[in-house]
Amino acid sequence: MSTTDTGTGTGVDDAAEALSTAPREDGDTAGGSPNLPRLGVLGWLRWFWRQLTSMRVALILLFLLSLAAIPGSLVPQEGVDPVKVADFLKAHTTLGPIYTKLGLFHVYSSVWFSAIYILLFVSLAGCIIPRSWQFVGQLRSQPPRAPRKLDRMPAYSTWRTQAEPEAVLASARDTLRARRYRVAPGEESVAAEKGYLREAGNLLFHIALFGMLIAFAVGTLYKSDGNKLVVTGGGFTNNQTQYDDLKHGAFFEPDNMAPFGFTLNAFHATYERSGPQKGTPRSYAADVTYFGADGKDHQRTIHVNEPLEVAGNKVYLTSHGYSTVVTVKDGQGNVAYHGPVPFLPLDGNVTSQGVIKVPDAVGKDGKRDQLGFAGLFTPTMAIDPVNGPHSTFPALDRPALFLSAYHGDLGMDSGLAQNVYQLDTSNKNLQQFKDAKGTPIKALMVPGDTWTLPNGAGSITLNRIDQWANFEIVYQPGNSLALTSAVCMLIGLAGSLFIQRRRVWVRARRTEDGHTLVELAGLGRSESRKVAEELAVLVTAVHAEAPTAAEEPQEAQPDSVPSDSLPHEDHSDKEQA
Amino acid sequence: MNIAAGVNEHMAQISNYLVYSAMAVYTLAFLAHITEWIFGSRSRVGRTARAVAAPAATASAPAVRVKQRGGGTAVLDRPKVVTRDASEDRGATDGPGAAGGSEKGDLYGRIAISLTTLAFLLHVGGVLARALSVGRAPWGNMYEFSVALGMVAVGVYLALLALGKNVRWVGLFLITSVLLDLGLAVTVLYADSDQLVPALHSYWLWIHVSCAIICGAVLHLGALATLLYLFRDGYEVRQAQGRLGKLDSMMERLPAAASLDKFAYRINAAIFPLWTFTIIAGSIWAESAWGRYWGWDPTETWSFITWVAYACYLHARATAGWKGRKAAYLCLIAFGCYLFNFYCVNIFIVGKHSYAGL
């Protein structure tokens, strides 16, 4: 669209030079050249570098970055929800492998996504570093001298006065200095500039982007993030073996884990009791006793939005559920197991599933006969033909435990890792307890109940219901750098968008008839009418000191009426980068 | 975390009545605007505006009022500031507005603005009553978010009018879109007044979500201006070629394409830092609630995409070869990302931002 980007020697471009350190676009002029010289390797590299650091390519990369981020929000991500990824792979047997090859399950660490943002940052560096030097140079030098034809400037004013030129210029200098302009020394004219903070803000914003990138990288490389389910009364100490699962970055060192731990004393939850959102959780609170690097015990309550901060780690409360406290006696009448068994919630009303494994049970005959129970726990029990046993409210209003029992070999000695929340019922050596007719027997228990298994195989007593809470323990360095960068980005952005950079020139020279011709001109971004408004204020101030000569006819101004036929200059539209 | 307060059903009911009343009055304002446009197209001024739209003289030169200090004796010539507009416009002037110079049309336009103000007050009342009924920030679900967003959009429009800015042209389009927004809110997105899940119990709800609402409202204004810019720009091209269509009697009453473009840019650029802050505030909240400041949750991802798209627009606006229509399309895409984030991500994609029904 614009073909007048480069100067035509009218003076405006010279004056506008370095009003912005934005890179010059050379696409328009270089593109049409018919006989390009042959490029060597170095030439190609230079060409590639020039292209990469041009605004046009930066724009395209920016747009590609937003496009590339889209699939990550539509396809399940391993880092966000690995279960969903597994489900997706099961459901889509043709698409799944293709997606895996394309890295669509971890978009934000994929090669192509990384390539885009790395190129973008290289492009940014190639733009910002020279601009920073240029800006330092501008700060060290003075505002450029007044161009010869001030009337070509976007805002211009002139009058004749009887005041001495020196007096006019001195008054202009004082006025400009009072308005916090930077004023360059000069004889016949005054050059002043204001709004350096715009470019400073622009640079600050873009440099802060690098800070953000570094913070992100540090956070990803050194991060550790694990979960621990803790039953009321139970505890945790920060050690790799204590975690239920632990994800960590490439530079994570298990030996350097911070020493801390905590005990869960009690857990409190409240739920909406009525209305359409009945059953929705309203508050969760976990009372803990914790110790940090100092080794002393402290009391705290952890809420959902208020993690415990200890020894550089953060402990978040992420979920909760119920655990049944049971006593299992074996065929010999000995207590084979006593303790809490956590059940995992299946739905919003905390219908929960769990298993009780008793590997140490001994049968009536004195031989090893392991016991296993698969159960469904409902805090508020209800049974209907469609849903079977289920919970209708998440609080412990009518707790009940539905159990079916197994005996034989739990398969725990096979050496393979077992899920503690599942019973391997496909195991042939594990038989379900059945009645005389051969139908599996089941029990419905409320706290205090004891279920005696057939054939003197033992019994199980439901002592009481406890709660458990799941904690996420996160160590992520670089957070403060990220926050600092974010604040710098904001400050820089505000500066670069809200501050105007503008120049004002004042010239006063004696004319042949003994008067003084005063000229004021302003230059800024074309977006704003503020330059003219500001110049008007300056004119008012200077004019008060040097009023218009009384007998002067207005028409006598030399060559200063701007006309539409002049080629307009596009001097200020490349402020941003 | 406090023990959740109950819900004042009575206040909730009042809030619903107020929102419905606001919608009714907005509809009247909409009709008044339509009448304004109809009278405008009938007016002779409107019709001849086409013929008058010759290349304009130099842009307005603000006269400098020189104060005579110390009781100056003579009233002298005041030096004027001559401005030279360097922007690349076609010399097209701003249209006369919807009423097109017709007095009746103008009257209906004023009636429309009065009705809009009344509806806005009802709207504010509705949001306040909702807040009182639950004792928390009135933007905890999609319904409340939409209602608050509409309120802020109209509020910004009325504030700009009150400041004497030339924004009357956007009236009809804004009211139409606000009606659509409210209609969608009360039918599809409606959720009863209720308390929030524990994850939303935070003062960041006030900061993060209110900023998102303000950004949405202002970006919406910017997108409307950009859309009208595209239409008006097409009109100016057709006008230059001398082949005007039927709907062009509407286009000619809009401000010049350059003015629309400038308005859209200013409003988008002004709100961009706030959108940045919204994302930062959300990150700080996520850090304290979920254990990480950034986790590529779908809503986070789309807020990032929106941010990058607007960054694209702001850069394109300043790059030769991209400014003008191309930048305008980028602006519309960017606002489309915002809308996608609010509607599609919340409804169709499950993420951590989905709460409380819808």
From TrEMBL, chain A:
Keyword Ion transport (UniProt): no
InterPro entries, A to Z: Cyt_c_bgen_Ccs1/CcsB/ResB, ResB-like_domain
UniProt main location, coarse: membrane
Transmembrane portions of the chain: 57-75, 111-130, 203-222, 480-499
Keywords from the named record: Cytochrome c-type biogenesis, Membrane, Transmembrane, Transmembrane helix
Domain of life: Bacteria
Pfam family membership, one: ResB
Membrane association type: Multi-pass membrane protein
Ranges annotated as biased composition (Low complexity): 544-557
Residue segments, region Disordered: 544-577
Residue spans of biased composition, Basic and acidic residues class: 566-577
Stretches assigned to the ResB-like domain: 55-535
Location relative to the cell: Membrane
Name under which the protein is recorded: Cytochrome c biogenesis protein ResB
Organism in which the protein naturally occurs: Streptantibioticus ferralitis
Automatic annotation (TrEMBL), chain B:
Lineage of the organism: Bacteria, Bacillati, Actinomycetota, Actinomycetes, Kitasatosporales
Annotated compartments: Membrane
Record carries keyword Cell division: no
Domain Cytochrome c assembly protein: 139-348
Protein name: C-type cytochrome biogenesis protein CcsB
Transmembrane annotation, as ranges: 17-39, 111-133, 145-163, 170-191, 203-231, 263-286, 301-320, 327-349
Principal location listed in the UniProt entry: membrane
Keyword set, alphabetical order: Cytochrome c-type biogenesis, Membrane, Transmembrane, Transmembrane helix
Annotated gene: ccsB
Alphabetical list of InterPro entries matching this protein: Cyt_c_assembly (IPR002541), Cyt_c_biogenesis_CcsA (IPR017562), Cyt_c_biogenesis_CcsA/CcmC (IPR045062)
Membrane topology: Multi-pass membrane protein
Pfam families per the UniProt record, alphabetical: Cytochrom_C_asm
